[in-house]
Design goal:
The chain contains 2 helices and 29 strands. By secondary structure, it is mainly β.
Length: about 450
């Protein structure tokens, strides 16, 4: 079924309608894909962020400007993000990843007590917002890590920052191994420090989601070339033990769907499968990457480009951004949204975004996602052409919310940086989102439903 014509969100029998193919083509026409939602996007006179009428934005932070802490410039490549209640008068803390590789122009400053590997340029920063929504503080929360892409919040109000790399000490100039998850305490970063949670595995982490009832942590692996990534769960020794409890270790397992080696072949939203969990032979990947290890009879289930991951409605949702047979996937699609119900032990395909045969541009795909205040979704686009944040309501409306108006391409070859880290304030009245390049953190206010 081509989702350029119709798609179904099977969860709860909700119809997912609209021009979903246009949703991920990256064309300006996508803003006219529906007249529902909050209306068409209006060009921003400042050339930063196009929004519907009645909405406004505030620039909270831009790469290259001085950090308010005086620790150095704001780092580049703003990625995953979460908002935390800072107590009293609607104060908010935003913890923000910086997906810096060794070529990054603006590193996360190496701060004593917060730095893992001085030769790595990634990490996290924290923005402190007052009750009016203005940024009044900005500081380093984690440094010396690499390619910090997404992550996820914990039930005890810390952030798990994920390294999307498998580089070892001695490669790329690094002095320590990378490919880990790090816990960040937005209220007091020195309390969490820079300690890799090695038992959670060493692989190209993308995002995590914590089951608030059992404490199990689900993890996605972003591998876009063969062998593709796995979907994991981590069983902590101290479930729901609070800040620092994940350092106690635990067991890492990977998802096996019997008879299904590659999730890309599933093309019917609503299709369900029994899920099995297989122990990972060597979570630290001492000699062999985890996704290449021997999982015994029945093998393991792979998927290309596993990205966003979040907990909601009693289960975990995760995204496969795209699959391309020319790159080794068993089938083609623009993207999938999967859900796993731990009570029933069932995996279900909720959303399918069109076949690659309908795709004019490579890489147009869903990436970071979050729940919206109205119970729907917010979806960050990461692909070619103009880049959008789209909303999907529980009634199936698909509508544009924001468009990055900042051209980061060369003259005659426009290119717009992807969106990342979409999240909402604890009261649901403000949406925060990052433009990856040029690195900008926005607060968007308006008549949110």
């Amino acid at each position: 079924m081509s989702v350029t014509r119709r798609s179904l969100l099977a969860a709860g029998g909700i119809a997912f309608t609209g021009a979903l193919g246009a949703l991920f083509t990256g064309r300006a026409g996508a803003a006219r894909a529906t007249t529902r939602g909050y209306g068409p996007l209006l060009p921003d006179p400042r050339g930063l962020l196009d929004l519907p009428a009645g909405f406004s934005y505030r620039v909270l932070s831009r790469a290259g400007d001085p950090l308010r802490s005086g620790e150095g410039p704001v780092p580049a490549n703003c990625d995953g993000m979460a908002a935390f209640d800072a107590g009293g008068g609607n104060r908010v803390r935003l913890v923000r990843n910086h997906e810096n590789r060794t070529t990054a122009a603006l590193r996360v400053p190496a701060v004593a007590g917060l730095t893992y590997d001085p030769q790595a340029l990634g990490g996290c920063t924290v923005l402190e917002l007052d009750g009016t929504g203005r940024a009044v503080g900005e500081r380093v929360a984690l440094a010396g890590t690499a390619v910090n892409c997404a992550g996820g919040r914990t039930p005890w109000n810390t952030w798990l920052s994920c390294e999307e790399t498998e580089d070892r000490a001695g490669t790329s100039g690094y002095t320590l191994d990378h490919g880990y998850v790090f816990e960040v305490d937005p209220a007091d970063p020195h309390r969490s420090g820079a300690v890799p949670l090695t038992a959670m595995g060493r692989f190209a982490h993308e995002a995590v989601a914590v089951d608030p009832y059992s404490g199990i942590v689900y993890e996605t692996e972003d591998a876009f070339v063969e062998p593709f990534g796995l979907f994991y769960r981590f069983l902590p020794e101290r479930p729901l033990g609070g800040p620092g409890s994940l350092r106690a270790g635990g067991a890492l397992e990977a998802l096996r769907v019997p008879g299904l080696a590659d999730l890309s072949v599933v093309d019917e939203p609503g299709a369900e499968f029994p899920a099995r969990w297989v122990p990972v032979p060597d979570p630290g990947a001492a000699t062999t990457p985890v996704r290449l290890q021997d999982f015994g009879p029945g093998g393991i289930t792979h998927a290309q480009k596993l990205e966003g991951c979040y907990w909601g409605d009693g289960g975990v949702r995760f995204v496969s951004s795209y699959a391309r047979s020319r790159e080794g996937s068993a089938a083609d699609h623009h993207g999938q949204v999967w859900s796993y119900d731990p009570r029933r032990g069932r995996l279900r395909l909720d959303v399918l975004f069109g076949p690659a045969s309908d795709t004019a541009l490579p890489g147009d795909s869903p990436d970071n996602i979050c729940l919206a205040p109205d119970g729907g979704l917010m979806v960050c686009e990461d692909g070619g052409g103009a880049q959008y944040v789209f909303g999907v309501t529980v009634d199936g409306e698909v509508y544009p919310v924001a468009r990055n108006a900042q051209d980061v391409g060369q003259p005659g070859a426009p290119e717009w940086g992807e969106f990342a880290g979409v999240t909402f304030s604890p009261d649901g009245r403000t949406m925060y989102v990052n433009a990856y390049a040029p690195g900008t953190t926005f607060a968007v206010s308006g008549p949110w439903r």
